[in-house]
Structures are given as C-alpha cells and as structure tokens.
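ingest -> validate -> predict -> emit
validate: passed (alphabet ok, no gaps, 608 aa)
predict: started
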Amino acid sequence: MENRYDHSEAQRYIEKYSEYPADLALRVYTSRLIGAEADLVLHGGGNTSVKTAMTDILGDELGVICVKGSGWDLGDIEPPGLPALDLAYLKKLRALQDLGDEEMVNQFRTHLLEASAPTPSIETLVHAFLPPKFIDHTHADAIVTLTNQPDAERLLGEALGERIAVLPFIMPGFPLALAMAELYEKNPAVEAIILMNHGIFTFGDEAGTAYGRMIDYVSRAEAYIAARVMPVEAESVSAPDGSVVLPLLRGALSRIDGGPTPRHCLFDLREEAGLLAALARPDAEELLVTGVLTPDHVIRTKNYPLFLDFGALADEAGIGALINTAVDDYHQRYVSYFETQVAAKGADKIRLDGMPRVILIRGLGVIGVGATPKAAGIAADIAEHTVRAKVRAAAVGTFRELAESSIFDMEYWSLEQVKLGKGSPPSLQGRTALVTGGGGAIAMGIGRQLLKAGAVVYLSDISEERLKVACAKLAEQFGGQMVRPLVMDVCDGVSVGAGLDLIVKESGGLDILVPNAGVAHVARLEDLAEEKFDQVIEVNLKGVFQVIKAATPIFRRQGMGGNIVINSSKNVFDPGAAFGAYSSSKAAPISLARLPPLNWPKSGSGSI
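emit:
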C-alpha cells in the first residue's frame, strides 16, 4: 500500500480550511487519504481523531478532541464531520467504574461544542483516553486477515514487528476505551494497537506520522500474506443460467419469514475472475461459509453468506427446488442462532429478518442483496473483500471466525442498528421497473413517479441520444443508481430478450412493466398506406407483445406477482377519423396485457 501523504497537498488543506485550526485541516486531509483506500475502510467504516484547541464564545481557549461523526465517510469528510468535544471532561470519565452505552452517548452530546454537530463515533473515548495527538483506526483487510487465525498473535508479531500491542476482541464502548488506555500505558513506545477480529489503531503527534504508520503496518501485513499465497487449482465449473437462477432466487428470498406480502429486494452481482476462481475452489463452501471479517460488517451482510452450487443441474424445476431448500435452511439457521443467543443472554430482543445479504453462487459470482441499490452495493463490496481475504487467510493458516455470541451482541446493538436508519420505506422500495419509449416526455413522467415511490427504473429507447438526455435529467434528482438507461428495440425479439436479461443480471428481476413506446400516424382510412399501418402496429402492438412475452417468464419464476401498466388512449373507445392505425394499435394491447397474470403462480399477485 502506497503512502500518499504530500506536504504541498497538506498545505493546500490548511489554506482551504483556514477558518479551522491547522491540526483539524490536516486531520481532514489524512482522513481522506485513509478513506480513499477500500482495503482500509468500507462505507463509513473506521474513524480518526485529533486533539487540538479551539476558542469558545467568551474567547477562552479550550482543549478539544475532534472525532469522526456519525453519518460521515472518511473518503469525503469535511471539518464539520469531525465534531469537537471538551477533552478535559471526557478524560474525567475514566474514573467511572461503569458507563452504559446510552449514557456514554449522552455524555458525548452534552459536551459537544456545537449542539447541532453529528453524534461522535462510539469509539470516542478510545481516542480521548489515548495520549497521542492524532489517532487513526481502520478495519484493514490485511490486518483482520491475520487476526482471524488460531495463532494470530504469533502471526502478527512475525508480520508487524515488536512496536505493536495486541488486545483481545472487546465490544466498542467504555470497557474497550479503558482496556486500550491501560494497554498503551504499559507499552508507551508502541506505534500501533491491534484489536483482534476488529482492526488496527495507529497514532502519532503529527498527522503524517499517524497516517504513515497505518500505511506501513498494513503494508507489512500485506507483504507477509502475499509471500505465503500459492495458487490453488480451481475445479471446472459450469456457469448456471443467470436469467433463470436470479429470478428464482429473488422469489425465494421474497417469501422468507412468511409475511403476507413479498419482501422485495435488489441484487448486485459481482463476477470478476478472481471471485469466480475463489468460488470454484474445491474447498470453497468450507472456506467461505464462515463468519464476517470484523463484527462491524454484520449489520450489512449478516454473519454468514448463502452458498449455492448447482453442479450439472440444468432443469428449471430442479434449480428452483434447490434454491428453495437452501433459502429455507438458511432462514432456519438464523432463527436458531437468534433463539440460542437470546436464551443464553436472557435478552429481550425482537428478531431481525433472516434473509441473507450475501449469496455466493459457483460459476455465477458474488451477490449483494439489499432493499436499495446502495444497500445491495455495500453488501457486495464487503463480500468481495471478504472472499479475497478468506482466500488469503487460507494461504496463511486457517480462517477462524469470531464466536456467535460476540456477533449477536454487535448485530443487535442499538448503537449499530441506528446506522441503518429508521422510518417507513417508500412504497415501491426494492422493486425494479421497466418503462419503454424512455426518451419521450410521457416516459419521463412515468419514470419520475416510480422513482419518487422508491423503485429502480430502467428507461429503454431505440435512440441512445434521447435516452441519455432523459436519464440525465432524472438522475439529477434521483441519482444514477436509481435510473438506468437501456438501449432496446421493442420490435426486435432478440433485442428485447437481451435487454430483459441485462435487467435481471443487474438487479435480480422485474416487478413493474410499462410498455410505453409508441408512434402515431395521421391519415383518413382511404388515405392510410399499408406500410404506415404496419409501422404503427409494429411498434404499438407488436412492441407491447415482445416486452410482455419476455417479461412473463421473469414474473413466473419470481412467483410474487407483478404489475403491467398499459399506456392506453381515449382513441380505443372514441377513435378519431384520421387515427385508424393508432386507435387499432392501442386497443389490442389491453387484451394482450390480461394474459400474463393467468400464467403467474397462484401464490403471487398481478395487476394491470
């Protein structure tokens, strides 16, 4: 890993944030350097701090600690993302015998310099109790790879040298802060502290020193692991048909917990060569169906992935049966885990859903599952890093997961759950929609309403240029992850089939179909040329037929119903004298759209 600290760039940050202490400007700079490395932190993980001085409203100088705040990501953090707290007061808390999580957060909030500041990291007291000025904390892949081993301390010593200290895993909070401070005081010459199964803390009196030590120790761990990685010959694996597997899988997930309505979700499929090679290993299931690299990941991914191996199985019924059995088994295992932990701890908890967030499919890839593209992408990102780390862990020794008792404590910890946010989801969250004729104003209006309701919307059009303009306008309001362009000719069955396959591959399936593409030709009946009549029928009727036909197997495989919305016209019932072709072409799709629900499973629900 490269040390990217640049003194001229550091000076630029000091000048850019001149209204803040220079120490804080440098803290922002090196925090961003850390946040830019996915092998160090992912999606808001890790935290940083600096001890400095600020002037209060009375003009008195106050010693403060600025710590990463909740909701901020190190990759793009700004000074307000590092709220300042009264450092002298926080240090006094060390005299307490006990400090509960809720009261600890209350102490943070009541000793902020700005009442509107974000809540500081749950590890704030770790940063406050440790003396160094700058402290960096990450969940570096290479470090946690070494800590998740039976003889981790020996490996860490060999890889990182003598200037480190190692602490057994302790949940974040007051007890961890006390243990870290005591360990440092016994070893004041250490440059880093490793928290087993969690990550690494580095520190220094200069921003560049703390950051440089982080890069140095992670690089040592990476080199140590790389020297021991030997290629493992993968088995020859046939790739299952994703257009069949993914909708069947999505449907099976929707029925987890047996609720009255399906649980809609989105997929994020990763199929890089290295991931496929890992899934093709002879020991893939044994190695990869193990716990998370660090407990912080459990709220995003659950502790275990779901592993699917279809072998030579090719018939749809057999694939569906295997998926249903595997999903049911996964769910039952989660329920058992919950009940066991609740009984052992005497805890009063409400069970979370038992749906896997990571699915590993031999021959197909790694899938992140989530209610939104962002959630699915986070799960997929973490899963990618986890798969690669476990492969490296196997080369070093044996991957050893953290006990389920500790995982449960983190998964059901209120201070972790708050990271996921609360509130009622939008009515169409987790659903995928396709609107044809996407380059036109009507499609944009339809798409806008679907996006407002939380659906992921694919706009398709035969014109790439019109499509780019339409999607760009909607993306400004709803984001590029939510609205996606799809160049497709609705009159061409091959083009439509390829387009629907792409939607399934990218999101897992389809829930809402709006065959909106259409053309009009004005001519009285005696003046209507046959080729013009055929052209209107080709787009307005055959185009509807093509997309409904291609979508029907997806709806059927998912088994949770769906919606087909026909954009009709008053001309169906009251045709104009010069709209014979248009009126005819708009009437037939109404009957056509009534056919797919007759083919959907009775367990699902469909509407027109």
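The CA atoms of residues 254 and 263 lie 4 Å apart.
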